[in-house]
Amino acid sequence: MTLVLEQLLNGLQFGVMLFLLAAGLTLIFGIMGVINLAHGSLYMVGAYGAAFVAAQTGSVVLAILGGLAAAAIAGMAMELVVLRRLYARDHLDQVLATFALILIFNQGVTILFGRQPLFVSVPPALNGSVQLLPGLAYPVYRLAIIAVGLLVALGLYLLINRTRIGMLVRAGATHREMVRALGVDIRLLYTAVFGLGALLAGLAGLMAGPILAVQVGMGEQILITTFVVVVIGGVGSIRGAFFGALIVGLVDTSLRAFLPGLLRHAMTGSEADALAAGLSSMGIYLLMAVVLLVRPKGLFPAHV
Amino acid sequence: MSDNTIERAAPAPLAIGTLLATLLLAAALIALPFAMQALGQPALVPLASRVLIYAVAAASLNLALGFGGMVSFGHAAFFGVGGYVVGILYQSYTGDEPFLGLIPGTDQLLITLPAAILVAGLLALVIGALSLRTSGVQFIMITLAFAQMLFFLFVSLKVYGGDDGMTIRRRNALFGLNTRDDATFYFICLAVAAVVFLLFWRIVRSRFGLVLAGIRQNERRMAAIGIAPYRYKLAAFVISGMGAGLAGALMANYMRFVSPDMLHWTKSGELMIMVILGGVGTLLGPLLGAAALVTLETVLTSWTEHWQLVLGPVLLLVVLFTQGGLNGLLARLRPGRSAR
Amino acid sequence: MTAPLLSVRGLRKRFGGLVATDGVDLDVVEGEIHALIGPNGAGKTTLITQLFGELTHDEGAIRLSGEEIGALKTPQRVARGLARTFQINQLLPDFSMLDNVALAVQAHAGHSFRFFADARRDEGLRSRARQHLAAAGLSHRAETKVADLSHGEQKQLEFAIALACEPRLLLLDEPMAGLGHAESEQMVAMLSALKGRVTMLLVEHDMDAVFKLADRISVLVYGRVIATGTAEEIRDNPEVRTAYLGEGDA
């Protein structure tokens, strides 16, 4: 029972990380109509930024700020230099141009930091674990990630549904001309939305640092999973991104945790482990296929 | 789409100039190994085989992407599976243990290539049938995700080497030829490439090809004249997957090795780069694009290990500032003539 | 009187709170030109789009020669003899005029899973397509790419493509919109030349053209047909007058 609960929490933690990426990706697609493969690069930049500042200064606060700033600056630069020229282009051009950005970011980071993964330690204040239930101690740091993720989700919900900026964002997705007619600088709005998306990706990246190895290619790995989230949730929908992320996080984590045990009932240990590893890596893609069969537009096909 | 797409307004009869240019290209490709030998650069022959194999893969992708408007980001799946068909059949052949206990292995090229085409086609049928229920950006993400799924499948299949891939000790046999010989293998690739390009040339101009191009331009219009787009798109996607599988089977023979790398998503990206470098929706564009990318890679890697840092900006410039890739540039250098 | 070619009963379509089509009843009899008029926003294009199957309706029945076609997809309806023109041109911009029409001929001739023969050298398809272009007065520009045509020529091409589908019932969505005076006259002439051979449901704002062409007129207001009758009957109908004067549209 405690094992199940622990895995649920792990799934939740993975889910909110996916949400931070999926929210930006789906917003950028919903509003600007751009598919940005380099969104994962911003995640990587956030992770490297924080790792670098942490190694230099030893300060957690500065590391967080450093990671966020690096991702936001990289994101805005990306928008100003490249993506702005892609809004009116077809998806093929967008895919290839942002694929080129991935190559540039990955090689750039390799030159700056080398191929060896960086390891980041958990901030001292969040070290250790808490006793959630008798027999269930859970790392504070992971709980913190879940809390941050849920807070961001709440904040985004309020931002989009309760503020003028949110209204513009919602309107901008469906009625570009109308927003322009209101006298709003649509370019500024786009850059702001892109900056927000980059910030969220950077946040996910810097939080991932102490759990995963910070290395080149980390962005693409999670990006493809994020695509699955967006497809399952419904392209362009924040709500879909949220629930899609939680579903994918939970499914992926539980398959990895429980499948080997289940298969061992049916076959020998090593074969079961190999098969389970394969099946659990494929699980979310199969889930996506099923969702597509039933709901081709995703679970929450919304306008924003 | 720019002017130099294949379906120009006027259906000019096959111009003498185009015919001559094609014959010239064919002659050059046939003479290439001998010329390399004469120039004392025999090491370039395998490189040319590589270009031809990638040209087949890119041309196949181009059928879906350029002519059909389906931006598939998962063609590495078909390419890789084609390769694994060769690898698995070879392993069954040498181990004398039928695949799944049913299908006997073989090292005969005349069997492995059709088998690769068949398996890749069936896979494309399944992936296409699901993915084509969506369009636009979802289609891109879904094809990418399915390819990734297969990537993980082969990583986990320890029987076939898992992460490390599997070695094919000898290239497949074809009649009594010495397929190990670089020039011989080059001519095999050339023959396959010639057949594929000839087929695509016919398909693009056929009733099916026009319907496909029509769907790319305006799906609503096609429905309004009574054409249900889905089945035509699916058929094109399957043909495209079959071509990529064929290329993968050749590549496995070329490298005498298959690994999940062949299915990696960056491989899908590379195939797309070749298509756009050469010129989307042009017949010979993929050949040019494959040549350009392989050359670029070969030249740059001799300078720096960070060759992708050069490829990135080059690709960016091509996407942002050229129309129609290399083929488009060539066409503009020859005013009054269209690029074919 | 024989059974109508097209019979619509209780057709309804909602978009959220908005009722776009509110229980439309409509009969179009074989051979007539039936005009559908109404103020802007009355739901004329929405109705055409539902009849053609590009938009699914919520309730009601659509019958073509007695056969219920409401559940069919657009290509299946085309196969049963429907065709339409679009108010906003839907053409294949990279193709020539002749290609555009030849594709419609090809689609009408059966499936297109033919992979080898050059379709542009298929004289059967091409000559039929040329006939349709000639009928629409477009022969001289057959090889011109659609993207290079004027708006008026594109409208005429829309018409030629629809004819190439050899429809029993042609749905025309504002064929005169955006045309100059001379072009409009030409379109009216083409439609009258076709009268009796092809049944037409004509949505049009140009009242001169409507009164010149239509055998019967239906008036659509707020998603309902409020009157159907001959030109005189409609002109004298008080309800129609209020609807039009109230909207200030003609």
From TrEMBL, chain A:
The keyword Protein biosynthesis does not apply. InterPro entries: ABC_transp_permease, BCAA_transport_permease. The keyword Transmembrane helix applies. Keywords: Amino-acid transport, Cell membrane, Membrane, Transmembrane, Transmembrane helix, Transport. The chain crosses the membrane at residues 12-30, 61-83, 95-114, 140-160, 188-216, 222-251, 272-294. Belongs to the binding-protein-dependent transport system permease family. LivHM subfamily. This is Branched-chain amino acid ABC transporter permease.
Automatic annotation (TrEMBL), chain B:
It comes from the Bacteria. The keyword Transmembrane applies. CDD domains: TM_PBP1_LivM_like (cd06581). The chain crosses the membrane at residues 12-35, 47-67, 73-90, 110-132, 138-162, 183-204, 230-250, 271-294, 306-330. This is Branched-chain amino acid ABC transporter permease. It is a multi-pass membrane protein. The keyword Membrane applies. Keywords: Cell membrane, Membrane, Transmembrane, Transmembrane helix. It is found in: Cell membrane. Its main location: membrane.
TrEMBL record, chain C:
Keywords: ATP-binding, Nucleotide-binding, Transport. Pfam families: ABC_tran, BCA_ABC_TP_C. Gene3D superfamilies: P-loop containing nucleotide triphosphate hydrolases. Signal peptide: none annotated. Residues 6-247 form the ABC transporter domain. It comes from Bosea minatitlanensis. This is ABC transporter ATP-binding protein. SUPFAM superfamilies: P-loop containing nucleoside triphosphate hydrolases. CDD domains: ABC_Mj1267_LivG_branched. PROSITE patterns: ABC_TRANSPORTER_2 (PS50893). It comes from the Bacteria.
